[in-house]
Design the sequence.
């Protein structure tokens, strides 16, 4: 029965099968070269089958012959019979014990000497056994690399007897003299290699840092001796000095670039104390800073700077200080808002500021060497959104592939435990930060490993679903009520502006102060309603804290996006068509000022939340309640506040090109305020969890609801809404989109040979069909990329299962070999007893 199972034992195909066979089947112990090693790679299945075909009597005789051959080889190889080798055998046997104190099945009755000798000759037991084998291995590698660099014959061209083997070194046992000679050969070979190959070879050696450093010092000392013995010419010395100076300057430049990365130390400290969940918030804030810096560089270079160099004539008003809160007043006559920008070609000045100068009145000579501001405004905003969308989609796909790949917690825990320390860290503060970081990551991995998925009864599941349904009903009802309140309040504000326009005795300062009411109401809702969501969340029970965080993110996202939808309808559906009824001459400036006020109020209420929600709660808990518990940092609400503010910035870049600067200043202040509050007022989550996918979720939310919604609103404004007739670069056009068509008509009129461009613009730009085709292709690319990542995840999962099965196959084959060996021993004993009786 055992023989039939051994014959029918399936082995998984592929490279992993070859590796397991080579690990399991070495029977020849005296291997002299890699050419001889090819005969070693026979499977244990073959060995069992060969021993099973000849019957019990012949098998026993063959096994006795094999035993005698192995004994003769062991007598020839004296180092294998020493106490050190016996200790290694016992240690190798003890390594196969399972966790929990239970012995492995293959060790049920102990292994025979034949099995132990086979195990001792396995590649995993010989490679890396001592330093001599490692030095021999890398001496051969460096020699091969040096010969390849010198275009000499490959090592494969030499005879097998002249090619050293790592396993032969491991089996023979290296003496001290042999190890010293190998070290000298290794130093010689490394000294003849280029610096890059030498560094790469030293990094790959499985030696300690001290031994690597010693080998590197020996190589450098030998180089110095060789250089001192040689008399270099002046040109050679100058060349070496230039190379050394260039290398030092390059390393200094790389160190300088690394130091330019902001907040590295603070982020490591947060990661060490609070885990990856809180760290993901600050990393997301850092990402938003880079997006706004890019947006400001684009608008500043192509819009703000040209218009600031050639400013139009405007009446200036005195600065009252209220402009810092309302954004109106003297700020309305600066490059901060849309209405300041000219509708003519720079550097030519406009003579009629009221109605504007039509761009068609310009001569071809002036257009050839001038800057068309309407066209620049249109294409700058369009290209800024397009490039931002590409960067966001690339970042989303990159983080998606990084976070959703299959990484089992067991392998990550092993890697973090044994190979995550950076030995280049020598400062005490850095060592402490790294220790805290590794400790927190280990806690998160252990919490994920020890998490138990219990199967609940039908009644418990039904009660849990009912609680979730009630919680979501409360959240949706409260969000709907707030939407209705903001809708009717914005309508009331609009009617109040119409009445104030009819009343000629209204104080202008009071009129501007009333404009802060709508941003204040919306900010109060954004502050209080997430607290209600957290209160409702205490009713629910979730298996993991990360699931609770994702649910909270979904509820806060529903609130923020609904508020932004009501506000966009208010600005584009009420203010833009009826701007003259409320006394406005430029509705684009009014919308830009509104967005500035919303950003400012969002920052003020963030400060209030940090003060009252975190600082005062900590003081109340410590002083009054006499408890050491601190509030936990609310990741969902704070992240959605960032997404809400960034959406406002993207909406306002059309109406206020300088608004990204305001957003950058706000993000910098929020970072340091939140960092200080987290360090002083918050504590780490009671249940640590690994937030491996939070960054991907944040980038996805920033791309799809935020940027996509802002792009839709901006595109609708440029395509459908009529601009103001007395301000801005599009004052003489029906829509902003017609700026490109108008420019194409001028080009065709001045140069008839360029009529092809006008037709291309008509068919490809003005036709919405190609816009939908481009969007469809873009979505198809995203879909295929997600499918590729999903396929990679499945392949990685299959490979990990195959590796796990390979380990089980090794244990099974060794167990079978042991059982067959015992059967043959018993058969041999029976034959001897029969011979003796005869």
Sequence:
């Amino acid at each position: 029965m055992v023989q039939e199972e051994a014959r029918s034992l399936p082995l998984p195909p592929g490279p992993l099968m070859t590796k397991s066979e080579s690990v399991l089947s070495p029977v020849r112990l005296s291997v002299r070269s890699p050419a001889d090693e090819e005969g070693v790679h026979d499977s244990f299945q073959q060995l069992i089958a060969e021993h099973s075909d000849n019957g019990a009597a012949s098998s026993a005789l063959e096994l006795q012959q094999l035993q005698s051959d192995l004994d003769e080889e062991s007598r020839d190889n004296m180092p294998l019979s020493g106490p050190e080798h016996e200790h290694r055998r016992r240690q190798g046997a003890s390594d196969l014990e399972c966790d929990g104190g239970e012995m492995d099945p293959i060790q049920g009755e102990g292994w025979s000497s034949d099995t132990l000798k086979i195990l001792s000759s396995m590649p995993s037991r010989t490679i890396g056994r001592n330093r001599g084998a490692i030095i021999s291995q890398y001496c051969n590698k460096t020699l091969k690399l040096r010969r390849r660099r010198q275009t000499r014959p490959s090592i494969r061209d030499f005879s097998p007897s002249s090619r050293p083997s790592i396993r032969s070194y491991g089996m023979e046992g290296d003496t001290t003299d042999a190890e010293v000679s190998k070290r000298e050969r290794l130093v010689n070979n490394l000294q003849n290699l280029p610096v890059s190959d030498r560094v790469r070879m030293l990094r790959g050696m499985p030696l300690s840092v001290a031994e690597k450093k010693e080998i590197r010092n020996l190589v450098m000392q030998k180089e110095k001796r060789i250089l001192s013995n040689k008399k270099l010419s002046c040109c050679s010395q100058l060349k070496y000095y230039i190379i050394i100076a260039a290398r030092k300057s390059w390393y200094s430049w790389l160190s300088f670039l690394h130091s330019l990365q902001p907040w590295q130390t603070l982020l490591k400290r947060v990661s060490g104390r609070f885990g990856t969940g809180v760290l993901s918030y600050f990393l997301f804030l850092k990402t938003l800073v880079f997006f706004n810096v890019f947006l400001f560089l684009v608008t500043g270079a192509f819009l703000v700077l040209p218009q600031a160099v050639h400013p139009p004539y405007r009446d200036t008003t005195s600065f009252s200080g209220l402009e810092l809160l309302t954004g109106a007043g003297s700020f309305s006559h600066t490059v901060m808002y849309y209405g300041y920008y000219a509708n003519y070609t720079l550097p030519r000045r406009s003579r009629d500021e009221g109605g504007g100068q039509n761009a068609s009145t310009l001569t071809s000579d002036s257009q050839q060497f001038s800057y068309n501001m309407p066209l620049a405004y249109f294409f700058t905003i369009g290209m800024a959104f397009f490039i931002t969308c590409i960067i966001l989609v690339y970042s989303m796909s990159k983080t998606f592939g990084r976070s959703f790949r299959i990484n089992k917690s067991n392998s990550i825990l092993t890697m973090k435990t044994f190979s995550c320390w950076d030995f280049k860290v020598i400062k005490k503060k850095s060592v402490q930060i790294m220790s805290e970081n590794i400790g927190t990551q280990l806690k998160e991995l252990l919490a994920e490993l020890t998490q138990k998925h219990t199967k609940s009864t039908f009644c418990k599941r039904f009660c849990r679903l009912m609680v979730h349904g009630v919680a979501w009903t409360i959240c949706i009802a409260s969000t709907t009520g707030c939407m209705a309140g903001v809708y009717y309040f914005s309508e009331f504000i609009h009617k109040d502006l119409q009445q104030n326009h009819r009343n000629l005795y209204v104080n202008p300062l009071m009129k501007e102060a009333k404009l802060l009411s709508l941003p204040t109401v919306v900010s109060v809702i954004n502050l209080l309603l997430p607290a209600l969501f957290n209160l409702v969340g205490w009713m629910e029970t979730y298996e993991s804290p990360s699931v609770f965080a994702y649910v909270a993110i979904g509820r806060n996202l529903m609130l923020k996006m609904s508020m932004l939808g009501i506000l966009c309808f208010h600005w584009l559906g009420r203010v833009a068509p009826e701007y003259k009824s409320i006394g406005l001459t430029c509705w684009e400036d009014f919308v830009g000022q509104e967005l500035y006020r919303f950003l400012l109020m969002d920052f003020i209420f963030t400060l209030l939340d940090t003060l009252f929600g975190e600082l005062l709660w900590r003081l109340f808990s410590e002083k009054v309640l006499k408890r050491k518990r601190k509030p936990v940092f609310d990741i969902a609400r704070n992240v959605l506040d960032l997404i809400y503010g960034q959406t406002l910035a993207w909406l306002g870049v059309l109406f206020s090109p300088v608004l990204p600067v305001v957003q950058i200043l706000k993000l910098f202040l929020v970072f340091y305020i939140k960092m200080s509050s987290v360090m002083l007022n918050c504590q780490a989550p009671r249940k640590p969890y690994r937030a491996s996918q939070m960054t991907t979720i944040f980038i996805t939310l920033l791309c799809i609801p935020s940027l996509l919604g802002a792009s839709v609103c901006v595109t609708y404004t440029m395509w459908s809404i009529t601009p103001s007739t007395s301000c801005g670069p599009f004052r003489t056009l029906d829509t902003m989109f017609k700026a490109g068509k108008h420019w194409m008509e001028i080009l065709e009129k001045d140069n008839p040979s360029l009529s092809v461009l006008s037709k291309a613009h008509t068919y490809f730009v003005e036709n919405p069909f190609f816009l939908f085709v481009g969007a469809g292709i873009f979505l198809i690319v995203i879909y295929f990329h997600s499918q590729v990542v999903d396929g990679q995840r499945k392949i990685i999962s299959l490979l990990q299962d195959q590796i796990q099965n390979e380990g089980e196959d090794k244990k099974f084959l060794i167990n079978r070999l042991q059982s067959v060996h015992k059967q043959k021993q018993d058969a041999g004993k029976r034959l001897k007893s029969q011979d003796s009786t005869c």
Notes: The radius of gyration is 38 Å.
